[in-house]
Task: structure prediction
Amino acid sequence: MPDLEHNFMYRMVRRSRLARHVIRDIGFALDMQLLAAYKEPEELALLRRVKKESDIYLTAGEAYMVYTLARAQSGLPGAMAEVGVYRGGSGKLICEAKGERPLHLFDTFQGLPGTHPHDRGFFQPGLFAGSLESVQAYLQDYPQVFFHPGIFPETAAAVEGTRFSFVHLDVDIYASMKAALTFFAPRLVPGGLILVHDYQYPGVRRAFEEVFSANGHTVVPLNTSQCIVRGPCAS
Ligand SMILES: C[S@@+](CC[C@H](N)C(=O)[O-])C[C@H]1O[C@@H](n2cnc3c(N)ncnc32)[C@H](O)[C@@H]1O
Result:
């Protein structure tokens, strides 16, 4: 488990809103320079545009993973989903990649719900408050995008019988992550994936330990704050 309490960058980010913004913006710009050495100009232009339009809460490399995995998974049957939409930045990347596949977007649109002691004070309720109407307007040109405002999993009933090829979870905190992993992991199509943000946080790690201790899912940590969850392989 990463020692975030003693990490210089995390201490700065926790102490000051300004530091948080500066570190995020500089980080994004540096990441873009790295990506420019490997990736297509059209993909870089998309990332730059989404950052500008939505203040996406991912690094450029993380945003690239959302886009490229959604694109890879769009050839499989099944819907896509995201829990943790905020201003719609990562949702827009999925929309750009998904083709005609349905995309279900879950968020309170009023920021994080209550936290748990497992979150060790890293997040406060209400952080990342957004607006359902503005995200709906932002994504209005894409087909088959469905909004589920409210606290997940209370909003999950509408997709109880749906199977998913790609799920993006960006919810930051223990209770939300546990609920989302519990719901989506058994609903992946063969070959389906869950991409998870914030895998370094204690609440998220705890949710993983509790949900995946006893079944066949494989967790692959990436060299960002993300990890990928792959469903059980057919025997
Ligand atoms: C860091 S933001 C997501 C950032 C976003 N993916 C982007 O592209 O910028 C985390 C979001 O998770 C949402 N969230 C956390 N737990 C939730 C839950 N149980 N139900 C619905 N939304 C939740 C918050 O409202 C917040 O908008």
About this structure: The pocket of S-adenosylmethionine is lined by residues 56-58, 83-87, 89-90, 106-108, 111-113, 128, 130, 151-152, 170-172, 176 (CB under 6 Å). The first strand starts at residue 79 and ends at 83.
